[in-house]
C-alpha cells in the first residue's frame, strides 16, 4: 500500500485535535486527522470557559452553531467552598449586558462532534476508527505515523509535522519527554448522571455548582433543564470506598455533602443509555518535561492536565491547539526555524498551565478543614509538593515575564503562603467581611511576599487577548511579545511573526 503525504497529521479528534487541524487547514495546508473512536463518543469535561466559546470557537466559525445547540448558558460558578457555609457565586462578568460574559455547559459527545465535523468542513481529511500506533522517524525527526484503519489494515502516512492531541492516554508524550505528576492534585473522580435534580435560583441556574466536603469536592453541572452531571473528586485513599461498588461509593459521598444531597433529593440516577454508567477517572495532574521534539508537538491533555475544579481542560486544549497551529503554519510558510516557533509554543502553553496550577492551588488552599485528610494534604504550607522539585521546575514562575524561571520547591510554596486567604478575600469578599467586619481589601502581596495582584493580571491577560483576537481580528491593536525577542501572533492570528 502506498504512503500518503500531508503537511500535518493530527492524532486524536477531541477539542484539541479538531481545533489544531482546523486552524492549519484554514491556511490551505493538507491535514489528516486520525481518530480512534467513532463519534459521537463519551468524554468528561462538560463545563466550559468563555475563552473557548468567544475565543477559539468564534475563530473556528462555530459561534452560531453552538448558540443554536440549546446548551445551558453558564454565567459562572457557584461554590460551597472556603470558610463560608453559604454558597457564593463567581460570575464571569459583573456587567449583565456583556455579550461575552458567559460560556456553556455542554454534552461533550455533541460538542466534540461539532468541532470534528467543522474540521472536515474546513478541508481536513478526518478519519474515524483510525488508530495511530507508531511514529515514523528518520534521522531523529518525526516524519509520519503508522496507523490501523477501520478495517484493521496497517498503513503509513508521512507529513512535515505531527500534532499529538490523543489526550491523557497519549503514547507519544513519553517519546517527546517525561510525564511528571503533581503531588498536590492526586485525585480520583467518580461520576454519573441524574434526571430531575434541583437548579440554582435564577439567574444562576446554568452555573456549575462546586461543593467541598470532608473527602473532597463535588461538581454538579446542569446539561439540560432536567439532566445533571454529578461527580465526586476524592483522594486515592477515599477512593478505596469504591471496592464496595461505584454506586455505593457515589451514594456515600453524596450523603456526606449536604448541598449536593439536597439538590439531588428529587432526582433519579440515569441507569440506561449513554449516561447509564457510573464512571471513574483518575485525574492526576501532570506536565510533560517537553512539549515538542523535531517534527512533533504535544497539544491539550497529551502535554499536560490540571485539576478540573475551574473547568480549564477544554480551554487549555483548544488554546494550545491555536498556539501549535501558529507554529506549524509559520514553518509551512517556510519562515523562522523549528527551535524558535516551538519554543514560543512551549513557553506560552506552559505559562498558561502554570498559571492555572497556581490559581487552583490557592483555590484549594481556601478550604482549611484540619480534620480532613483530603484538605490538610492540600494546604500550601504543608503540601507534599514542596519536595516535588521536578514538577515545580515545570510550572513555577512565568506568570509574569520578570519572574524567575525556577524556584526551589519549598521556596516556591513559602512565597505563596496566605495565597488561599488572599483568594478568598478576592473572590468572596462578602463572606470574609461578614466573618470579620474590619477585614480590609486584599493586599497586593500575600504574607510570603508573592505579588498576587500582579499574578492575577498576568493570569487573565492571555485569555483576554484570545477573545480580542476573535472579536476584532485584524483590527485589534499590536501585541507585545511575552519575552524579550519573542514572537507575536500574525494579524489573522494563525501564524507567528517577529515582534
Ligand atoms: P481528549 O478530549 O481526550 O481527546 C483525545 C482524542 O484522542 C479522543 O477522542 C481519543 O479517542 C483519541 N485518541 C486517543 N488515542 C488515539 C490514537 N492512538 N489514535 C487516534 N486517536 C486517539 N475540562 C473542562 O474544560 N471542563 C470540565 O468541567 C472538565 N471536567 C473534567 C473532569 C474530570 C474528572 C477530568 C478527568 C477532566 C475534566 N476536564 C474538564 C478536562 C477535559 O476532559 C480535557 O482536558 C479535554 O477533553 C482535553 O481535550 P483533548 O482534545 O486534549 O483530549
The shape, in one word, is: globular
Bound molecules: flavin-adenine dinucleotide
Q: How many E-type strands?
A: 23
CATH superfamily of the domain at 4-72 and 102-179 and 288-350: FAD/NAD(P)-binding domain
Q: pLDDT under 50 segments (min length 5)?
A: none
CATH architecture of the domain at 4-72 and 102-179 and 288-350: 3-Layer(bba) Sandwich
The biggest sheet, with number of strands, parallel, antiparallel or mixed sense and barrel status, is: 8 strands, mixed
- Total helices: the number is 15
Structural class given helices, strands, pairing? alpha+beta
What is the helix content?
25-40%
Under CATH at level 1, the class of the domain at 4-72 and 102-179 and 288-350 stands as Alpha Beta
Short description, anyone?
By secondary structure, this protein is of the alpha+beta class. The protein has helices spanning 15-25, 50-59, 63-67, 108-121, 173-176, 246-255, 258-264, 313-332, 338-365, 373-376, 389-395, 409-415, 419-427, 429-435, 452-472, and strands spanning 4-11, 31-35, 73-74, 76-80, 88-91, 103-104, 125-128, 131-138, 141-148, 154-164, 179-181, 187-195, 208-213, 216-222, 227-235, 268-269, 279-282, 286-288, 292-293, 296-298, 304-305, 487-489, 496-498. The strands form 5 sheets. Strands 1, 2, 7, 8, 9, 10, 19 and 20 form an 8-stranded mixed beta sheet that branches. Strands 4, 5, 12, 13, 14, 15, 16 and 17 form an 8-stranded mixed beta sheet that branches.
Amino acid at each position: 500500500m502506498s504512503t500518503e503525504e500531508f503537511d500535518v497529521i493530527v492524532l486524536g479528534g477531541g477539542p484539541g485535535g479538531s481545533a489544531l487541524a482546523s486552524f492549519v487547514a484554514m491556511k490551505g495546508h493538507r491535514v489528516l486527522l486520525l481518530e480512534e473512536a467513532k463519534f459521537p463518543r463519551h468524554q468528561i469535561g462538560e463545563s466550559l470557559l468563555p475563552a473557548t466559546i468567544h475565543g477559539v470557537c468564534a475563530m473556528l466559525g462555530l459561534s452560531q452553531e453552538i448558540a443554536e445547540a440549546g446548551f445551558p448558558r453558564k454565567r459562572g460558578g457557584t461554590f460551597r467552598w472556603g470558610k463560608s457555609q453559604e454558597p457564593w457565586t463567581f460570575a464571569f462578568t459583573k456587567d449583565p449586558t456583556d455579550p461575552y460574559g458567559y460560556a456553556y455547559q455542554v454534552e461533550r459527545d455533541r460538542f466534540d462532534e461539532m468541532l470534528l465535523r467543522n474540521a472536515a468542513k474546513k478541508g481536513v481529511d478526518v478519519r474515524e476508527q483510525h488508530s495511530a500506533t507508531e511514529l515514523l522517524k528518520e534521522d531523529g525527526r518525526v516524519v509520519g505515523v503508522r496507523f490501523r484503519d477501520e478495517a484493521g489494515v496497517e498503513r503509513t502516512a508521512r507529513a512535515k509535522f505531527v500534532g499529538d492531541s490523543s489526550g491523557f492516554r497519549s503514547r507519544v508524550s513519553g517519546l517527546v519527554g517525561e510525564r511528571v505528576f503533581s503531588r498536590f492534585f492526586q485525585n480520583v473522580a467518580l461520576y454519573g448522571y441524574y434526571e430531575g435534580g434541583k437548579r440554582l435560583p435564577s439567574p444562576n441556574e446554568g452555573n456549575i455548582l462546586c461543593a467541598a466536603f470532608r473527602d473532597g469536592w463535588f461538581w454538579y453541572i446542569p446539561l439540560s433543564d432536567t439532566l445533571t452531571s454529578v461527580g465526586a473528586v476524592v483522594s486515592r485513599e477515599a477512593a478505596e470506598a469504591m471496592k464496595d461498588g461505584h454506586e455505593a461509593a457515589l451514594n456515600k459521598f453524596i450523603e456526606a455533602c449536604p448541598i449536593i444531597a439536597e439538590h439531588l433529593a428529587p432526582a433519579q440516577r440515569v441507569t440506561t443509555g449513554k449516561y447509564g454508567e457510573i464512571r471513574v477517572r483518575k485525574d492526576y495532574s501532570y506536565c510533560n518535561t517537553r512539549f515538542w521534539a523535531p517534527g512533533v508537538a504535544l497539544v491539550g491533555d497529551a502535554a499536560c492536565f490540571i485539576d478540573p475544579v475551574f473547568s480549564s481542560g477544554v480551554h487549555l486544549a483548544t488554546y494550545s491547539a491555536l498556539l501549535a497551529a501558529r507554529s506549524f503554519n509559520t514553518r509551512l510558510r517556510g519562515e523562522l526555524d523549528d527551535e524558535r516557533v516551538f519554543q514560543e509554543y512551549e513557553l506560552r502553553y506552559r505559562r498558561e498551565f502554570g498559571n492555572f496550577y497556581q490559581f487552583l492551588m490557592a483555590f484549594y488552599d481556601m478550604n482549611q478543614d484540619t480534620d480532613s485528610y483530603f484538605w490538610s494534604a492540600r494546604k500550601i504550607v504543608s503540601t507534599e509538593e514542596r519536595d516535588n522539585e521536578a514538577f515545580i521546575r515545570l510550572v513555577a514562575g512565568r506568570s509574569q515575564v520578570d519572574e524567575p524561571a525556577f524556584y526551589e520547591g519549598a521556596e516556591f510554596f513559602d512565597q505563596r503562603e496566605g495565597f488561599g486567604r488572599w483568594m478568598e478575600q478576592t473572590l468572596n469578599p462578602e463572606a470574609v467581611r461578614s466573618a470579620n467586619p474590619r477585614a480590609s481589601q486584599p493586599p497586593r502581596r500575600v504574607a510570603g511576599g508573592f505579588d498576587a495582584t500582579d499574578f492575577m493580571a498576568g493570569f487573565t491577560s492571555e485569555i483576554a487577548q484570545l477573545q480580542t483576537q476573535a472579536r476584532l481580528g485584524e483590527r485589534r491593536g499590536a501585541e507585545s511579545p511575552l519575552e524579550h525577542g519573542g514572537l507575536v501572533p500574525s494579524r489573522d492570528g494563525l501564524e507567528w511573526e517577529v515582534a
